[in-house]
Amino acid sequence: MVFKIVKPLDWGIIFTALVLVITSFYFAYSGSNSPAMVNIKSGNDEWLFPIDAEETLAFSGPLGETVINISDGKARFISSPCMNQTCVASGAVQIPGQWAACLPNRIMLFIGEGDIKIESNVDAVSR
């Protein structure tokens, strides 16, 4: 009974919408071939590491030394001289687009694909 109400043009619209949805999902969820990279920015300096590196690194900021660990395809803050330790509590980042930052010590950790760099223009600084 329902099929008698739907006209041929309606089927064309339904088919077109279905093709658009499937195509959108394909482009949105098909991963790129470039490996994920860990970008770390401290002041005017910036470092780039592959996500599969096994590193424990120390970076200096205005408050002191912040330690970042890259292992098992994840990157996370291990310790920082900031008061609230929000960056340490934020946990690991591993998916391109994820980030974590120690704002008081002005150190940012960003996961990007390939050669993506962190923007150098700062809108505001937290103290």
Topology:
Blueprint: H1 2-5, H2 8-29, E1 36-42, E2 45-50, E3 55-60, E4 65-71, E5 74-79, H3 86-89, E6 99-102, E7 107-113
Antiparallel strand pairs: 1-2, 1-7, 3-4, 4-5, 6-7
List keywords for this structure.
mini-chromosome maintenance (MCM) complex, domain 2; three-stranded antiparallel beta sheet; alpha+beta; four-stranded antiparallel beta sheet; 127 residues; 7 strands
Short synopsis of the structure:
The protein is of the alpha+beta class.
Please explain how this structure is put together:
The chain is an alpha+beta fold and 127 residues long. The chain is built from three helices and seven strands. Strands 2-1-7-6 form a four-stranded antiparallel beta sheet. Strands 3-4-5 form a three-stranded antiparallel beta sheet. The radius of gyration is 22 Å and the shape is elongated. The mean pLDDT is 85.
Strand order of the largest sheet: 2-1-7-6
Shape: elongated
CATH arch. level architecture of the largest domain: Sandwich
Query: Roughly how much helix do the residues carry, as a percent range?
Result: 10-25%
Give the terminus-to-terminus CA distance: 67 Å
Could you state the order of secondary-structure elements as H and E? Answer: HHEEEEEHEE
The class by helix and strand makeup works out as alpha+beta
Sheet with most strands: 4 strands, antiparallel
| Name of the level-1 CATH class of the largest domain | Mainly Beta
Beta-strand percent range: 25-35%
Instruction: Give the count of helical stretches.
Output: 3
